[in-house]
């Protein structure tokens, strides 16, 4: 088994569906079955109507880059200097923090972003942001550059 290229997320009863769907190549967001509001990160109770009833809703992953930052210091393995972390607002109204898998000079606030499940190790799949139509190639870490491509 290869060494993971990212720290494993803390998976619990509230968010397990999110990580399981990513491993299956799908992006799902928690949706209240009472008021139909989407919410992320997943929580037990709807902040809008206080319902405890929810479902996992598969979403397109299309969104807009709200903001981003390039990280240079301190950069620890496996990340490469200048890797990008962005906040993407999905068309479904929720925001996700993702690695932007593009060059820094390509990233612009307000640009369209496609969020897809991306494999970062044998047992780790996380959401990653790409320019729509761009190849799903990992550029944020040295080990992932050699790993298999995305699940989508």
Poorly predicted ranges = 143-152
Counted beta strands: 8
What is the CATH architecture assignment?
Beta Barrel
Q: What do the pLDDT scores average to?
A: 88
Structural class: mainly beta
Question: SSE order in H/E notation?
Answer: HEEEEEEEEH
What coarse outline follows from CA principal-axis ratios?
globular
CATH names the topology as: OB fold (Dihydrolipoamide Acetyltransferase, E2P)
> In what range is the share of β-strand residues?
25-35%
Distance between the terminal alpha carbons, to the nearest Å? 22 Å
| CATH C-level class | Mainly Beta
Percent of residues in helical segments? under 10%
Provide the number of structural domains: 1
Main pleated sheet: 5 strands, mixed, barrel
Output the strand order for the largest sheet: 4-5-6-8-7
- Give the number of helices: 2
| CA gyration radius, whole angstroms | 16 Å
Oligomeric state, counting identical vs distinct chains? single chain
Question: What does it look like?
Answer:
The protein has 152 residues and is mainly beta. It is 9% helix and 35% strand. β1 (28-32) and β2 (38-39) form a beta hairpin. It is globular.
Short description:
It contains two helices and eight strands. It is mainly beta and 152 residues long. The longest helix is centred in the N-terminal third of the chain and has 8 residues, at 16-23.
Topology, please?
Elements: H1 16-23, E1 28-32, E2 38-39, E3 54-58, E4 62-71, E5 83-90, E6 95-100, E7 112-121, E8 124-130, H2 142-146
Parallel strand pairs: 6-8
Antiparallel strand pairs: 1-2, 1-3, 4-5, 4-7, 5-6, 7-8
């Amino acid at each position: 088994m290869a060494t993971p290229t990212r720290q494993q997320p803390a998976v619990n009863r509230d968010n397990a569906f999110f990580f399981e769907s990513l491993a299956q190549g799908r992006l799902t967001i928690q949706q209240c079955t009472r008021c139909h509001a989407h919410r992320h990160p997943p929580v037990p109770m709807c902040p809008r109507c206080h319902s405890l009833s929810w479902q996992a809703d598969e979403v397109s992953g299309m969104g807009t880059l709200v903001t981003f930052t390039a990280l240079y210091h301190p950069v620890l393995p496996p990340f490469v200097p200048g890797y990008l972390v962005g906040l993407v607002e999905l068309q479904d109204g929720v925001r996700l923090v993702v690695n932007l898998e593009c060059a820094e000079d390509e990233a612009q606030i307000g640009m369209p972003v496609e969020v897809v499940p991306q494999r970062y190790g044998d047992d780790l799949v996380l959401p990653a942001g790409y320019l729509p139509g761009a190849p799903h190639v990992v550029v944020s870490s040295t080990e992932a550059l050699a790993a298999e491509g995305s699940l989508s």
